[in-house]
Every structure is written in C-alpha cells, then in structure tokens.
UniProtKB/TrEMBL annotation:
Lineage, highest ranks first: Eukaryota, Fungi, Fungi incertae sedis, Mucoromycota, Mucoromycotina
Protein name according to UniProt: SAM-dependent MTase RsmB/NOP-type domain-containing protein
Single biological process term from Gene Ontology: rRNA base methylation
Region feature Disordered, mapped onto this chain: 453-478
Protein's organism: Rhizopus oryzae (Mucormycosis agent)
Catalytic activity: a cytidine in 25S rRNA + S-adenosyl-L-methionine = a 5-methylcytidine in 25S rRNA + S-adenosyl-L-homocysteine + H(+)
Binding residues annotated for S-adenosyl-L-methionine, in chain numbering: 232-238, 256, 303
Length: 478
C-alpha cells in the first residue's frame, strides 16, 4: 500500500504546485519503481475528471473516513481502468475500503459512459490528452557529450532501426526512429518509447525535450565565444541547448527567481556538461543593463511566464482541471484580464532586454496559442521600439511551414511570415510561438548556421531520400 500512498502524495504535491510529474517521480530517489509510478500518476491524471465524478457520486471518501481523495483516485483508477486491479493483498484495510464500493463504482462508470455516448474507457479521455498521446518522443542529442552519429549507433546496437523521415510521424513503429527534418540534433521515436531509465539519458547524452521547445535556441543560435542571457532559464533545457550551440565557449547568464527551480537548472546543466553557464538567483527585470559585466551581451533568450495554453505533451496541466466543463465556462473577462496581465509582463521583459547596450538578437517565445501573448506582443514591441525590427524569415527556421497569423498583426503578411507557430494536433509538438527581434543597422539579420541544416533536411525529404542511402543521410546530419 506504500506505493499507492506515495502516488497519492505526489498528486497532492501536484495540486499544490510543488513540482512537476517528472520532478516528483523521476527526481525523487525515494521512488523505487520510477517507471511504474510515473505511469500510475500520468494515467490517473488522464482520467482524473471521471475519477473525481465517481468519488463524488458514490461519496466513498465521506463514507470511508480514512480514505483521502488523492489515495482514492489512484486506487479507483487501478480497480476500474487496469486489468491487474489494485496490486496489494485483499486483506489490506485501505483496499477493502474501495472494494466495498466496487459494485456502485462500476455502475456509476457505466452511467457516465451512457451519458457521454461512449463504450470504451479510452473514449472518456479528453481530446487534449489524446493529442498528447500522439506526440512522438523527441530526444535532443547533447553535443557536449556525444554526436548524432554516435547516438544513432548506440540506439542501433540496442535494436532500434533508423528509418527515413516518414510522410507522417504517426507511422513510426516501436523500436523505430528517425532524424528530425528541421533540427539536426533531434531524434524522433515512437510516442510510447520511455527513456527515463536509459543510460544515454542518465548520462546527459540525450535530453528529453519537445521539438518546438528547441526552436528558440536554434533561432537565437549565438556564435562561439559571445556573451548571452537566458532571462527565464529554469529548468534549464533551453539553457543547455544554447550552451551546446555555443560549444561551451563564451558565457551565458541564466536567471530565475525560484531557488528550487534554479537548483534544478544547476543539476540538469551540470549533467549535460555545460561549463559556460552562470546561474543567477534573481529577477532579470531587476538587472542593470549598464552593469559592466553585461557590457558584451549581444544575444538574449526570453521565454517568460505565459498561459501555457499550448502545452499538451505533459499532464501537469490537468492538475487543476477538476471539472473541465465548468473550466470551459469560466468568465471570459477573467481570461481576458489574465492574458492582458501576462502580455504586459511579457512586453516588459522584452523591452528590458532591449536596454542592454549591445543587444542585437533577442528571441521571444511562448508555449501559448493565444494571439494576445504572441502576435499582439510583437505588434506592441515594434510600435514602441523603432530601433528594433523582426528578423527575416530566412534567419528564423525558414523551412518551417507554419508562420504567424496576419489578421492578428494588422493584416501584415510580411511580419507574420517572420514569426513561427506550431499547432499540436497538426505539427505533433506542443503549441509554441517564436519571434526574433534584431537591432536595426546590425549585421545579424542574416541566415543562421542552423538553416544550413534545414536546407539539408529539405533535400532529404521522403521523395528525394529514395536516391540516397541511410549511410549518406547519417553522414550529412551527424
């Protein structure tokens, strides 16, 4: 029963926003079977709305005084949504608390299915969660510690098969993988591939990071030896990516207000072999742009707090969704006010970055699908800061097909073409937005080094790859 009680405590911590699923499971040495615990927590969250409805209808937690709601969630999940059932002895008192209500729980579950017009448990999962399940497993190769070629060889030795980039990533089969067509340091695997206990992950040779989350560092792409700032850095994946692209040269100041999250950044970037990062516990907004130590800062990466409306490849966003329908019916004005407050904060971050005397390339990104945090912020920045302009498309992932929404930026197709968007259901990534501001008169609005990779990826499209061997493809992209 200790296993279930621990799972319940993790749900409680998630509800109090005391960490993420990954941090509370993978990062906790007290969790013995991390894979099993991670699966139970994630699966419980997937069905949380239905499970809460069952708890309320049966009043099981009111009747069984010793049964906490969080523990009831995981126990009822295993009772009703797994073939194995609750995996403890039948004489365990807390299991008996649930078994006593088994008939009523099953009856109420049947009523819910009838009401929703579905027949299977899978159909009870929201579309947002289903989309998350379809997203492939992305693994960024950490070039501080290995190369794409060596990583590919390591996976092949384990029985994985490298295939040409498929017409549809949903076609990827278990034990198959490919090199991403847009990012040369990204490998793509079947969505159910689990690397949390894999040697390459534990040693920092691969980093589990959503594809769209890798866009900002690639767009920023500071050259070797320069000074850069990651303004909202924790947990550190983007910071370590910048470090890898800079080949551990120069210097990166990484800011975060949260000491716990900054500690996680130190741990993750340390494991990744980063040696050019200076973690700063404090607010980027409180830094003095004219401080001599920042005199040579030219590149800034800004990924400030946002609504997170584009995030679907993790289940942490479900923690507060006790009643999806009621959440959907929240007062629209409250949503508008929240987005307004967020956009004002986001604008302040960008404008502060523009005060650094040598800043010449500033990348602003969000994991939001709302124009208020994306195109509208860009529009406001351009209006109030004439010394900066948007970097042209040929330096902002030029081969990526989905760009900004012209209608949200004064019907200006040229400006919309300069920014990048992703849509989860269609692009099989988290929802993301990336823009890049460059100082006028600076010779930095040119094609970035990574775009050479984009061009190579295009020549290796499924139609053209037939003429090339896999060996040649690996040599080109490693």
């Amino acid at each position: 029963m200790n296993f279930y009680q621990h799972a319940g405590r993790i749900l409680d911590k998630l509800a109090r926003h005391e960490g993420t699923i990954k941090g509370l499971v993978i990062g906790d040495p007290k969790v013995q079977d991390k894979k099993k615990m991670y699966a139970l927590v994630c699966e419980t969250l997937k069905y949380k709305q239905v499970l809460n409805e069952l708890i309320d209808k049966t009043k099981i937690c009111e009747i069984e005084k010793k049964l906490k709601r969080s523990l009831a969630l995981v126990l009822i999940h295993d009772l009703l949504f797994t073939k194995r059932g609750i995996t403890v002895r039948n004489d365990v008192p807390l299991k008996q608390c649930v078994i006593r209500h088994q008939a009523r729980l099953k009856a109420e579950l049947t009523k819910i299915k009838v009401k929703r017009g579905v027949t299977s448990n899978d159909d009870l999962v929201s579309q947002k969660v289903k989309d998350a399940v379809l997203i492939p497993r992305y693994a960024r190769v950490n070039e501080h510690k290995t190369t794409v070629k060596k990583a590919i060889e390591a996976f092949q030795k384990e029985g994985f098969t490298l295939i040409e980039y498929p017409a549809n990533l949903k076609e990827l089969q278990p034990k198959q993988f490919c090199i991403d067509r847009h990012l040369s340091d990204m490998l793509v695997f079947h969505q159910r591939t689990d690397f949390h206990d894999h040697a390459l992950y534990k040693s920092g040779q691969i980093i589990l990071q959503d594809k769209a989350s890798c866009f900002p560092a690639h767009v920023c792409h500071p050259p070797e030896g320069v000074h850069a700032i990651d303004a909202c850095a924790a947990p550190g994946n983007k910071t370590s990516h910048l470090s890898a692209l800079m080949k551990n040269t120069g210097k990166i100041w990484a800011f975060d207000l949260d000491s716990r999250r900054l500690g996680l950044l130190k741990k993750l970037t340390g494991r990744a072999g980063c040696k050019n990062i200076n973690p700063i516990h404090g607010s980027f907004l409180e830094t003095d742009p004219n401080d001599p130590q920042y005199a040579e800062v030219e590149y800034l990466l800004l990924d400030p707090s946002c609504s997170g409306s584009g995030i679907i490849s993790r289940l942490d966003h479900l923690v507060d969704d006790n009643d999806t329908e009621s959440n959907d019916q929240k007062n629209e004005q409250t949503q508008e006010e929240r987005l307004k407050n967020l956009s004002e904060f986001q604008i302040s971050i960008i404008e502060h970055a523009m005060k650094f005397p040598k800043a010449k390339r500033i990348v602003y990104s969000t994991c939001s699908i709302h124009a208020e945090e994306n195109e509208h912020v860009v529009k406001a920045i351009l209006k109030n800061n004439p010394q900066f302009e948007l970097a042209k498309r040929d330096s902002v992932l030029p081969t990526w097909h989905r760009r900004g929404i012209p209608e949200e930026i004064d019907d200006n197709k040229d400006l919309a073409d300069c920014v990048v968007r992703t849509i989860p259901a269609e692009d099989l990534t988290n929802g993301f937005f990336v823009s890049c501001f460059v100082r006028k008169g600076q010779d930095d609005n040119v094609k970035r080094p990574i775009d050479k990779v984009d061009a190579v990826s295009e020549t290796n499209s499924p139609k053209k790859k037939k003429k090339n061997s896999k060996k040649k493809k690996t040599a080109l992209t490693a």
